[in-house]
Amino acid sequence: MRIIIEGGRVIDPANDIDKVQDIYIAEGKILARGRKPQDFQADRVIDANGLVVCPGLVDMRARLREPGQENKATIASETKAAAKAGVTTLCCPPDTDPVIDTPAVVELIHRRAGEAGHANVVTLGALTHRLRGEQLAEMCALKQAGCVGVSNALQPVDLKILRRAMEYAASQDLTVYLHPEDPALSQQGCAHEGTVSVRLGLPGIPETAETVAVAQALQLIDLTGVNAHFCQVSSDAAARMIARAQYDGAPITVDVTAHHLFLTEMDIGYFNAQCHVRPPLRTQRDRDGLREALVNGTISAICSDHQPHDTDAKLAPFPATEPGISAIETLLPLALRLVDDGLLSLPDALSRVTFFPANILEISAGTLDVGANADICVFHPHYSWRYEESHIVSAGKNTPFLGWNLKGLVTHTLLNGRIVHEVDDDTLHEVITQGAYEAELAQSNSIAQGQPLDDDIEAEDSNEEDEDWFEPPSVTDIDSPRPPQTDREARPAEDTDAGAFVPPSAQTTATKSKQKKQAAKKTAAAAVENTNVLDSNAFDSNASDANALGNSGGDHQVSTQIDAPREPQTDSPIEPAAAKSPAMAANDANDTYKPPISPFRVPSKQFAPLSDRVIKTQPEDDNRAAADPNSKRVPAVKDDD
Length: 641
Fold this sequence. Notes:
641 residues, alpha/beta, 8-stranded mixed sheet, 33% helix, 16% strand
């Protein structure tokens, strides 16, 4: 099937592309971008005007519950939910039933995913046999069957066994996926060990349970040289430890779950079982530390850690409920929320859920390269909607984000050039209409705050002269008249008094106000000159009043200033001209301001740098320092009595 996606904002972080262009698809591959291939005839045209076109999302961790727990969910149901969320590739951990420790289980999962046809599924093989941490799994056979890495999931492994497993994985060029948690310190806890767990009487998992496990793993990684990936880092301390190891050259990567970037231990409230996750939600400081690590690149991927549960799994007392969130359908909206929070730009946020996860998994996905598989997500970044249970396609309805107002709705998802998800025409019209209004509102708010829009599309080559549109004008540009408006859409004018951008509709008012102020300043300057050359008639009429005062101390000049005729007031509230000195009026006329020089700005001995403080033992040092200008000695400062 031949498809054209036309008029969309194409964002491909892998190739640093962010501009409006068309995409041409044929035989499941991306045939071309931008220019139409010769003799190309499309079977289907997708109008993406006002929409974002990006690579299909790659989720590094999603439990599909099949095989073994089909009562909770199936591969078909969860890959269908993934397609609705724009996710085209999923990575399944090995803790299924049976465990993914033989090629037969790998082939079963791949065949079921192919039959469903909604998304690609890749698998992680077991690090140890049955995940028991006693005997190494057949990693070579698992790699040949298609596993992209090995992991022991959430099951603990003895350090001696872990070392041998890392050596085996390094020999097979397999990445080891680690869930850092020390079982001796976690002790079957269910919440972060802190004020909330104490108040609610819940067994806690300290931050140390993660940092100790990270420290041990880092030492073994340094010893064995294996490529390693830390899954679901939840604490600021662990993120800083990993950042230091990355700086030292350790071959490690990190991911974080989307809910750990938004929720904290306070969201547990009064035993909200929907917030029971593993690792637990931690403090606000940890959440902010994870966000910082995401911004500076320590954390390179965001995953959902999708874990669908049936209704009964969350109805027991909090410690007895099963941990996990049905999170695959909120992966993109939460990533876009990071853009609204000002943490990441839109291309950066998309790179954390497309290109970087694909790089870590070492799979050919997360890109819009010509010749690559046409796995594509089309969505509106500004469409706002309320997340309700009726919107959830996944078999698991367990999520703490119900009732949240989210942005970003997927309109089309393509898998290997085939449309696997598409909204109906009425929904598409609503999305485009309401999304355009939200984008216009965001644009007006950004202009009012004087900040350039992150979602502004880069200008085409023909409009390159507009690239510096938001650059602040120089002083000369402020005082010079503005050029006449062209036929293009009016650009936001800059308010030179407040230093902020104003909407185009306010340009005329701002110009008139500026003209009034300039006229007022000229009037004030003229008034000052008039006060120096007094009218003779006014002087004679005031002389008699001055003589009437006699020798009582009245000043003739003062009385003349008081009785002198005043200039008519302008529309701008300015001070009377006679009340200003000629120097002040001249400053106003030149529109300049010179701060007064404070008489108290003298060097202080107390705040002098430590390197400049010299302890003097001989009185002649002062004379020597004064005579030698290159001397570093400073004359002693004597305190005033």
